[in-house]
Amino acid sequence: MIKKLTFLLCFFTTIVFSQNLEFTVIVKDFDTDLPIEEVTITASRTQQGFLTNKEGKAIVSLTRSSDLELVHSTYKTIVVKFSTLTKKENVVYMEPNTQQLEEYIITKDHPQEILKRLIENSRNKMTIPVNLKVYLHEFYKRDNQIVFFNDGLINFQILGNSKSIKTDILIEQNRAIGVLDGDIDPNILGYDLNNIIENYYQFKYLDEVLDSKAKKIYDFSVKTYPSNEDYLVIKIVPFAESKGVLSDFLVVYDSNKKIILEVSSYVTPDRLFAYKESMFATRKVYKLEFKNTFRLEGDFYYLANSKEVIGFEKYYKKKSRRIEVKNHMVITDFDKKMFEYSDKNVFKDKSLINKKTSFFTNYWDVESGFVSTDEEKMIIERLSKSDESDKDENEE
User: Where is the signal peptide (predicted)?
Assistant: First the structure.
């Protein structure tokens, strides 16, 4: 592939975004009036993607008028007409699924075999090659206090095929704010950006439940999905007697099209506590979560967003510390058309952590698709001031 890049493309993209239709959507639970986090919002005409934060808030910036589809695994999917989004701040309510009970499905094949076929079909359906425009958002805690933040606008040029994926990464803008020291394991410092898309598109996070031995470790079941009769759910839960840090898995799939729409996993607190008490390792995990959401739009099948959380305790300089890393990735746009670029513009590091801050717009509010909460913004401002103070001291 011929590669030339003019980063003027980023500048022109910014001009286009400045002319967008921009407003805020706050998503709340119909019964409790509480905000709903991690609602996937997709503009039906433009296919732009957004994700709500802990406040249930998303800043929607559209290239043209479009209805919005709101999806969450525990709520009924809704479509909001653009004509009703007349305010600068619009409140939208979603109805929870709890009123409808899940039912077990009796299957001819073992659920693990169904899952294997789903993974194979989903891999083959994935749109490749494709350019994904992604917003990456990461917070780092030390002893329950946020000490570092980074985010950025990234273009993933995904090449190859379902069996062999190659990703070229181009960074448009980024921020790295705060101070990290040697107490955070470099293996979990953010995503390994050079293989994360391969892991997601190959569904490698499910590898541990695909082995034949997994049937003796996990209980597999298939259930109905209350909000959509065309969807089913595979639940995979470790047996009580199974040992180790084992996750509970949930896979939502389209039973007609045989593709995966959501994969999530977490380790229950009880299991993590038992692991912590039984181990004498230098690193003890106390939190482990993962979630991928995929979308099918016409011929496009792609990653819509992801989340990973890991928290662990370890000794550093003879003191115990609690470290937690939380990452979100939101696909704000996608295109089959690949743009040209040169090899020198390709980002080859594992993480944005050590990349020098470089931005020319407030992309985190306009183009991100996922905004920080008011509390997080205050923390980012505090970290920024600390950074400036450190620079001033170094200059002196």
Answer: 1-18
- 103 found inside a domain: no
Domain that holds residue 267: 111-338
CA 288 to chain centroid: 14
Q: Are 296 and 257 in contact (CB under 8 A)?
A: yes
Separation of alpha carbons 245 and 243, rounded Å:
7
What is the model's pTM?
0.89
The total domain count for the chain is 1
Contact 359, 173 (CB under 8 A): yes
Report which of residues 103 and 98 the model is more confident about.
Answer: 103
Domain presence at residue 236: yes
Q: How many Å apart are CA 152 and CA 363, to the nearest integer?
A: 8
In the block, tokens 């050079």 appear at 194
In the chain, the percentage of residues whose pLDDT exceeds 70 is 87
Instruction: Specify the residue for token string 């709890």.
Output: 98
What's the rounded Cα separation, in Å, for the pair 298 and 47? 11
The answer to whether residue 105 is domain-embedded is: no
In whole angstroms, what is the distance from residue 270 CA to residue 159 CA? 42
